[in-house]
Design a protein that fits this description.
Structural class: alpha+beta
Oligomer: single chain
Largest sheet: 7 strands, antiparallel
Shape: globular
Number of domains: 1
Length: about 290
């Protein structure tokens, strides 16, 4: 249902837009600059060393995909560094997927809690928080939301300071496939690189197969590396590894950091962090039918 609704909304938006603003998807796809090789990220922040299997889109081209091709509202696409996409899948294909890259400078993440985390207990806590949030969603007239479980349990490399995990989410009483929420983080001196997959449950095996390759392509530059943290001058995040997985508790603001990007294709969206959905954004997910991200 939501797929048809989102496509209809996208079509109505195009009808309302000036003729000059309407572009054929093929034209947009051909305009994308698919870069290969070595790519600098940010202002000497990090470096992306692409393998032959992947390409890079800069921030402008990534917004073209998210907004112009996949129908996200422009203000839903925040400050991003770019995206990694598979080189052998057309961005217009139903099998397409990408990984949005951004940088979170909320502080150095202390990983001293990593070895002692019970991921089953953490999942249970996250599920309870999601149920509580879902109750509020239902009261506001939106579909209930369930954290089904780990689609891929957390894996933390304490030497490389890199972590990845995936969650399986379900909106309402929709049939399978459920929603995929796949997260990759690379820890640095004063923050972390956030790599969030825009993909569907059918792409889970492919991403799992490629995740170590993806992790190996990204590294902070000298001066920004995890081991260069200076406790005397650098800021420390208000959460550790458990908090990062649960959503990155922003103690000052008193809420979980959330990234929500709804895509007009009706099945591709990103939902990062603990599931905390505001009423305005949640409208995109009401009645969601195909459940993918």
């Amino acid at each position: 249902m939501i797929r048809n609704l989102m496509v209809l909304l996208a079509a109505l938006t195009l009808l309302a837009a000036p003729a000059s603003a309407q572009q054929d998807p093929q034209t947009i796809a051909r305009s994308l600059n698919l870069r290969e090789g070595t790519v600098p990220l940010g202002n000497n922040l990090a470096t992306l060393q692409l393998t032959p299997a992947f390409r890079y889109l800069d921030a402008g081209d990534t917004r073209k995909v998210l907004v112009d091709l996949w129908g996200n509202p422009p203000d839903s696409v925040g400050d991003i560094l770019g995206a990694i996409i598979p080189g052998n899948v057309s961005i217009l294909s139903d099998e397409s997927w990408l990984i949005i890259m951004s940088y979170d400078d909320s502080g150095h993440v202390d990983d001293s809690d990593a070895a002692g985390i019970d991921y089953d207990d953490l999942l249970a806590t996250m599920q309870q928080s999601t149920r509580e949030n879902s109750e509020e969603r239902v009261k506001q007239g939106y579909e209930k939301l369930e954290l089904v479980g780990w689609a891929e349990p957390p894996h933390y490399d304490s030497q490389a300071k890199k972590i990845y995990w995936a969650k399986q989410l379900k909106f309402g009483d929709t049939p399978p496939p459920d929603t995929l929420n796949y997260n990759i983080r690379v820890l640095g001196r004063t923050g972390y690189l956030d790599l969030t997959a825009v993909a569907g449950m059918p792409q889970l095996p492919m991403i799992n197969h490629r995740v170590n390759e993806i992790l190996g392509m990204v590294a902070f530059n000298p001066g920004n590396r995890y081991e260069e943290f200076d406790a005397a001058s650098d800021h420390t995040a208000e959460y550790g590894i458990a908090g990062l997985i649960a959503g990155g508790v922003l103690a000052k603001a008193g809420f979980f950091k959330v990234l929500l990007v709804a895509l007009a294709a009706g099945w591709k969206f990103v939902l990062g962090g603990l599931v905390v959905v505001g009423a305005a954004i949640a409208k995109f997910f009401r009645g969601k039918s195909s459940g993918q991200a």
